[in-house]
Design brief:
Distance between the termini: 52 Å
Number of helices: 15
Strand order of the largest sheet: 1-2
Helix content: 55-70%
Largest sheet: 2 strands, antiparallel
Radius of gyration: 21 Å
Number of strands: 2
Oligomer: single chain
CATH architecture: Orthogonal Bundle
Number of domains: 1
Structural class: mainly alpha
CATH class: Mainly Alpha
Shape: globular
CATH superfamily: Ammonium transporter AmtB like domains
Order of helices and strands: HHHEEHHHHHHHHHHHH
């Protein structure tokens, strides 16, 4: 697998720094896994966290074996239209057979993509909490890692047509996304919506009479601690992405880290204020969603904007997060236990837009808008069609009796908290 050639040789010290911060990036995955588990129900906690480990493994293997072939910089499918060459799908070797012969910066890029594919697969798993089978979650993650993620990774990071918007049309520096807001978070969030449509809501969530039934997080400590773990990983993630995909110098990394912190802090403050005003008291799970939405927006713009713009971007994300969660649940009857659609899809789209809005490059906003339109036109319809077909072969949803017992007992034969008696929910009908 080859990555796009760098504008100039990357010094060994910079590559060592990129590799070092990249080794911290998996903590972002660990944080998201803890948040997903805590936001679900206690009778599904072990299955949720085991599923996160399985999906991480399946996604990484699927991408390394086959997905990396399509994410490569060597064009495998390209066509000419309007006098321009459109690089659509990459090519490379199976099983990363040429990994040892790649340059160090290319090898670091492959590792980054492996981790990014794993995180993308984790997002729809959280949205399907309390009813999605392990087999269904793993199959969905494998499809994302083999087909959808490599396609978008090639467009954005592998020299594909989105990355070439500058030389082809003079739009800024081309579509920019150092931290994977597009091909990780938007892809994951829209795939989460497809999973929810295919699997349906949890039993008793939307009764025929009355409003949606509240199904609160079973462990707010997991959720809030997961936010802190994710922050450490995001700092490494954004720093590594800035070096590998945006060719940032080490001197630019402190600003990237500061912007990541400001986006998360601003989002948390805004969500805290909104929930305090609306409900009389702040809501812990929604504040966690706001914090995570701020981190997601930083994935797109932390290396491109000023600290003031990063803070503003985070505040906006924190304001719309609790409001959009409420609209999706109450107005559209979408059962998203982890807020994946709002946090990852909406947060990622806002971050990509903000990167173009505040980046000091003429035409950058239009380049970002072209990329956003391409994401919306590809991710949701393709993921829904693929998941609907997969659901016929490997049913995503557990049977009603298994959902009543809980995913832990049904799929693992034991609960995460055996010393506690877990009563059947009265809302289950």
């Amino acid at each position: 697998m080859n990555l796009p050639p760098l504008e100039q040789a990357v010094p060994d010290t910079t590559l060592a720094l990129a590799f070092g911060v990249l080794m911290v990036a998996p903590l972002a995955i660990a944080g998201v896994a803890l948040i997903n588990t805590g936001l679900g129900r206690s009778r599904s906690a072990a299955q949720s966290l085991l599923g996160c480990l399985l999906i991480f493994s399946v996604s990484l293997i699927a991408f390394a074996v086959l997905g990396a072939t399509f994410a490569g910089a060597e064009p495998a499918v390209a066509f000419t239209a309007a006098g321009k060459s459109w690089n659509w799908i990459g090519g490379g070797s199976l099983l990363l057979a040429r990994f040892a012969s790649l340059r160090t910066e290319q090898q670091c890029g492959v590792i980054f993509e492996c981790l990014a594919a794993s995180l993308a697969g984790l997002i729809p798993w959280g949205a399907g909490a309390d009813r999605l089978r392990l087999a269904g979650g793993c199959v969905a993650a494998a499809v994302l890692s083999v087909f959808l993620f490599p396609l978008l990774a090639h467009w954005v990071w592998g020299g594909g047509w989105l990355a070439q918007l500058a030389p082809m049309f003079g739009l800024g520096a081309g579509f920019l996304d150092g931290g994977g807001a597009a091909n990780v978070h938007v892809l994951g969030g829209l795939s989460a919506l497809a999973v929810i449509w295919v699997a349906g809501p949890r039993k008793g969530k939307f009764p025929k009479e009355g409003l949606a039934t509240a199904m609160p997080a079973h462990n707010a400590v997991y959720v809030l601690f997961g936010c802190l773990v994710a922050l450490v990983g995001w700092l490494g993630w954004n720093a590594a992405g800035a070096i590998l995909w945006l060719h940032a110098a080490p001197a630019a990394l402190p600003a990237t880290a500061l912007n990541t912190l400001l986006a998360a802090a601003g989002a948390l403050f805004a969500t805290f204020a909104v929930t305090r005003i609306r409900f009389g008291k702040p809501d812990a799970s929604l504040c966690a969603n706001g914090w995570l939405a701020g981190l997601v927006t930083s994935s797109a713009c932390a290396a491109l904007v000023s600290p003031g713009a990063a803070l503003f971007t985070g505040v906006v994300a924190g304001i719309f997060t609790p409001l959009l969660v409420e609209v999706l649940e109450l107005a559209l009857s979408i059962d998203d236990p982890t807020g994946a659609i709002t946090v990852h899809a909406a947060g990622g789209l806002w971050g990509l837009f903000a990167a173009g809005l505040f980046a000091p490059r003429p035409g950058q906003l239009l380049a970002q808008m072209v990329g956003i339109a391409a994401l919306l036109g590809v991710c949701l319809p393709l993921s829904y069609v693929l998941f609907a077909l997969l659901n016929r072969l490997v049913p995503f949803r557990v049977d009603p009796d298994g959902e009543r017992l809980g995913m832990d007992l049904h799929e693992l034969g034991g609960g995460a908290f055996p010393e506690f008696v877990i009563h059947r929910d009265e809302s289950y009908r």
